[in-house]
Task: structure prediction
Amino acid sequence: MKFLGNILWLIFGGLECALGYFTASLALMITIVGIPFGVETLKLGGLCLWPFGAKVIPTNKPQGCIRVPLNIIWFIFGGWLAWISHVFFGILLCITIIGIPWGKQHFKMAGLALHPFGHKVLVDL
Result:
């Protein structure tokens, strides 16, 4: 069932969402300062490619207190836009009974888009 959900996800907008994250990641990685943020957008793009069966778990990386300022910078410079778009589409999909599973995936991505530093995506194939 996860496979079918992921295929339908890709057909109806998941691939476009992932390509947007991958393009943003490429643009961020052009500069040295943007590399950590580019890695996080790659993580979001990977989750957009195969969300059903993926889990977002907290980790200890990056170490120490650097995680908080990185998440604040992320939020200020566009994380809130990604969060709003995923929440909007999650609500829109949850209005219909058939769209609830896809809406849940958008809410999972919204949580990661809000503060990606300190989280890891595990994909269960």
In short: The radius of gyration is 14 Å. Helices lie at 2-28, 35-49, 67-94, 100-114. Residues 67-94 form the longest helix (28 residues).
